[in-house]
Input
Amino acid sequence: MTGLEIGSLGIVALFAAILFGANVMVALGVVGAAGLAALVGTKGATAMLSTVFFDTTHSFHFSVIPLFLLMGFFAMRAGLGEDMFEAATKWLGNLKGGLAISTTMGAAAFGAASGSSVGTATIFTKLALPEMLARGYDKRLASASIAIAGTLAVMIPPSALVVVYGILTDSSIGGLLVAGVIPGGVFAVLLCIATYLTVMRNPDLAPVTATNVPMKEKLYSLRLAGPLLFVIICIISGLYLGVFTPTEAGGIGAGLTFVLAIMRQRSIRKLELSKTLMDTIKTSGMIFAIIICALVFSKFLALSGVANAIGGFLIGLEVNRWIVVLIIVGIYLLLGMMMDAPALLAITLPITHPVMMNLGFDPIWFGVFVVLLVEIGAVTPPVGINCFVVQAASDGRVRLEDVFRGLLPYIAAGFVMLLLLCLFPQMALFLPESMN
Output
């Protein structure tokens, strides 16, 4: 068999394993290792694998992931999401669809601290869903607004998924983190507009509760939400101004969030410190394993010639480069229906990233673009991990089909955001290009 045939067989084996329920990390590692053995022999494959493991695990870039995760776990354990939702509700609750809009903005702020799409969706389901349903909100609107709001956690820095992209593509992690600020904020606003227009079209979906909150009470709601926002601003500003590296930003963020958590709970015991650290280790280990196995599979694709063949085919198409972008969008949306974000990036980037670079796209811009794509996949059926999270955390209040049915205006907002990124790439590039 030729290298190309072995590589093609490996891709088929990978997707067959995933479709039959195999763990994506295991599938990537086993297929990649077996493919390398078939191409260069057992001894050559063993030598390559040892190099991949060492070169990956000793990289300083990896240290930023557990620090950002620790920051997020501290924020979640301390109940800081509750403070963000309370503050957002006080300020925005009187608008049409105000509770759903409050959820979006609260999730955007809290997601910047947690960096976890699933964690944000879980917390805001517990906080916001009972409140919305109690006030007569439609189940579909209420649950879908929470599911999509969770995706903001990986758009707005700090984000572990952005770091994963940076490691897999050898791109500037600091630049990628800063690049998500403006697109993340714009996407949050678009989601709020989608909610507002949906409610304007059908007011019965979200009855307005006329309660005027005094300014004194609004300001008081910022007593702990304000400091958390300050921490986020400090991290982003420090990265932008070059005051510290992404790893240092993670350490500072984790330390400050730990202090806020103690202030919030008034006790270190309630933070369940040992459990928080263990959760951080488990999640970090899972992400590291996916990256390592993805790099093994990437070496297999490169050595077999499949990556170059597919890339050459896409680049060789005598069409406008934006047609190729549309093809790549279709690939990500299709695969995003079947697997979670880290695995999707791990499988696709060895092929799509070189193609986009050869077509003249900026790696930072593509990072923001592809992260948004995989997060749209996080709410699309049949997998739609955020939708399953919302349904599971709702304690039977909503059905899975309720969540999926309410997502249409929000997915439309996601496509509008993708279009804006294509029309105005400086939305993602302005801050990184002006960094110190």
Summary: The chain has a mean pLDDT of 84.
